[in-house]
Design goal:
CATH class of chain A: Mainly Beta
Helix content of chain B: under 10%
CATH architecture of chain A: Beta Barrel
Strand order of the largest sheet of chain A: 2-3-4-5-6-7-8-9-10-11-12-13-14-15-16-17
Distance between the termini of chain A: 32 Å
CATH class of chain B: Mainly Beta
Number of domains of chain B: 1
Largest interface: A-B, 28 and 33 residues
Largest sheet of chain B: 4 strands, antiparallel
CATH architecture of chain B: 6 Propeller
Strand content of chain B: over 45%
Oligomer: heterodimer
Strand content of chain A: over 45%
CATH superfamily of chain B: TolB, C-terminal domain
Order of helices and strands of chain A: HEEEEHEEHEEEEEEHEEEEE
CATH topology of chain B: Neuraminidase
Radius of gyration of chain B: 16 Å
Chain lengths: 390, 236
């Protein structure tokens, strides 16, 4: 590991030299902000006995992002965000895709906005928190975009009331998630409906996991989320390849709903997030592999899935360091044996006077649902740096 | 006053009492959304207040009677008075809106280029009437003072390394005073821009402050939409 540490250190400290600052251009009417980020890590897995495939022990460029955010007075806002690192090899990682945002918001109404284009769907707090505002290299497994679409093309209406104590967004999307960029919907042509409402007290609660400002008022937020589609395929048709995701439940031949409740708290550097998801898919084909070969009389052609994810974080402002722990409990198919449990921890150090973050994340698998998501590893460590162009 | 406001005030006061920072005399929710800075206008016997929505208001010393008189900005973050003008700083647009102090009529818009992040532009402004110097200060990364003359011609710059950020500034008793939102600290600076005195201000998200005609300190909370008054006795 020593050569890895030395190499990583050299790379981390050489990053700022090549990066430039965020820019804002304005003619008084139109304001354009240019930013981005570069992040890289070294990943090391501890494999199960008998496993010898160590291909995941590697350096990786996670992000090479370019972000353009613009405003035309208070009438229109737009955003284009791309990750060249993922685009270069046409990767379609739903957690971190090549095209991240491409949308326009009409903000000329007092309490509402109308948003159109491609971007994050308003479902689940953790999915909505920007990567730079978390302290983990990877989101909890259930939230990474293999169970539901984190991004999609559609139209939504959002807004806020009462000093932004109440925020909401409801939208209609293709339901195909990141794959919608290929162009077509599935054969059913049906959309997905997604919505979220957040209540905060005693002040508005931004989408951040860490209390970097050592907030002296205890702050709370409660989010209620839901999404639904019916993509029952016409006779003889099938879902587009890859649309069902890593676990086969992202888009299904049938209808599917997910609901989630999330909570967040922060006070004096301490913060916590809890997120609970519960979903059900009603499959139109009694022989669907998701039904595990069980008879319809047992399954009712339904599967259920859900998750509980908890984070606790503490930011020590004086040394610009955040400590975090995570617990994940998720079940990807109630008809399959077992469930998944993971523990995680993370440490992040914000380098003084630079938009540079050094981040280390550790995973430990407590339980796995071997029939749905068999793993070759028991533990994983990822350490690296994130440089923001801002 | 609504129960929630009273509860917040009591919570705020209770925590202040425990930590011995400046204790607020009173807090009041104001009818201005996302207020970001204020300045006392003696001639009008009222505060002038700017908001993140690009709006300008007049407001009485007790936080009542907010009246909007301009709505064509985008993101006002600071306001100050020169001998005959009101300057409202639009952080996103990188522009300074000018108004005649006499009748609040518009007196032109002045571009002020700054190539940092959109929300890390000019966040604070104040004016020294003795020398005619206007101070424009960027929020963070870096906090930098731009010194200009009455006509906003740049005279020099000075980096400030005294706090995590700067959210507001004012000229008072021949000294530059700055407020840090993230540190929740009010600082009095000497001629060399070093901190001579500082006070912890237990206000959530303090975005603006001013000294009233009574010498008391008035602090605006953006997120809470609160005006909090601190007695001048606490500043001794």
């Amino acid at each position: 590991m020593r050569w890895c540490t030395v190499t990583l250190s050299v790379l981390i400290w050489s990053l700022p030299i090549g990066a430039s600052a965020q820019l804002t251009l304005s003619n008084g009417w139109h304001t354009l902000e240019i930013g981005g980020s570069v992040s890289m890590f070294y990943n090391h897995r501890i494999l199960k006995k008998g496993e010898d495939d160590s291909k995941k022990n590697r350096f990786a460029l996670r992000d090479a992002q370019l972000q353009l955010k613009g405003r035309v007075k208070n009438l229109v806002a737009y955003e284009l965000q791309v990750d060249v690192a993922d685009m270069a090899f046409n990767q379609n990682d739903p957690e971190n895709p090549g095209l991240m945002e491409a949308n326009i918001r009409y903000t000329g109404l007092r309490h509402f906005y109308i948003k159109a284009g491609y971007g994050k769907t308003p479902y689940g707090r953790s999915s909505l928190v920007p990567f730079k505002e978390t302290v983990y290299w990877q989101r909890a497994e259930f939230l990474r975009g293999s169970v539901y679409s984190r991004r999609d093309v559609g139209v939504s209406v959002g807004g806020s009331f009462l000093r932004q104590l109440i925020d909401f967004e409801f939208g209609v999307y293709t339901g195909m998630g990141e794959l919608t960029l290929r162009g077509d919907n599935d054969a059913s042509g049906n959309p997905e409906f997604v919505g979220r409402v957040q209540l905060a007290w005693p002040t508005r609660y931004r989408l951040r996991d860490v209390d970097e400002n050592d907030t002296y008022l205890p702050m709370f937020a409660l989010g209620i989320n839901g999404r639904y589609f019916d993509k029952t395929q016409p006779t003889g048709a099938s879902l587009p390849a890859g649309s069902n995701g890593e676990f086969g439940i992202k888009v299904v031949n049938g209808s599917k709903y997910l609901i989630a409740v999330d909570g967040a708290f922060q006070w004096h550097g301490a913060s916590a997030q809890v997120e609970w998801h519960m979903g059900e898919a009603r499959l139109s084909n009694p022989g669907d592999v998701l039904l595990q070969g069980l008879p319809d009389s047992v399954t009712g052609s339904r599967i259920k899935f859900g998750a509980l994810i908890c984070h606790v974080n503490y930011h020590i402002r004086r040394i610009r360091t955040t400590l975090s722990a995570r617990y994940e409990h998720y079940n990807l198919n109630d008809l399959a044996t077992g469930h998944n449990e993971r523990l995680g921890a993370s440490v992040q150090f914000n380098v003084p006077r630079l938009p540079l973050m050094l981040r280390a994340q550790y995973w430990h698998v407590l339980n796995e649902e071997t029939t749905v998501d068999p793993l070759k590893w028991t533990d994983q460590l990822r350490i690296g740096a994130i440089y923001l162009f801002e | 006053m609504r129960p929630a406001t009273i509860l917040i005030f009591l919570l705020q006061w209770g925590i202040c009492a425990a930590q011995k920072p400046m204790v607020p005399s009173w807090s009041k929710r104001i009818r201005i959304s996302e207020p970001s800075d204020l300045v006392w206008d003696t001639a009008r016997d009222s505060f002038l207040v700017v908001s993140d929505n690009g709006l300008l208001y007049t407001m009485s010393k007790d936080g009542e009677g907010a009246r909007q008189f301009f709505s064509k900005g985008s993101d006002f973050e600071a306001i100050t008075l020169t001998s005959d003008l009101i300057l409202a700083i639009d952080e996103s647009e990188r522009r300074i809106y000018r108004f005649n102090r006499k009748d609040l009529s518009p007196a032109g818009v002045y571009p002020m280029t700054y190539q940092g992040a959109r929300n890390r532009g000019f966040e604070a402004a104040c004016h020294d009437p003795q020398t005619g110097t206007t101070y424009l200060i960027t929020e963070k990364d870096p906090c930098r003072i731009f010194l200009t003359d009455e006509k906003l011609n740049l005279k020099g710059t000075q980096d400030l390394r005294i706090s995590a950020d700067v959210s507001a500034a004012t000229w008072h008793n021949d000294r530059l005073w700055v407020l840090s939102d993230e540190d929740r600290t009010l600082m009095e600076l000497g001629p060399d821009f070093k901190v001579t005195r500082s006070w912890k201000i237990k206000v959530h998200n303090p975005e603006g402050f001013a000294f009233g005609p009574d010498g008391n300190l008035y602090v605006l909370s953006d997120d809470m939409q609160l005006l909090t008054c601190f007695s001048k006795d606490g500043l001794r």
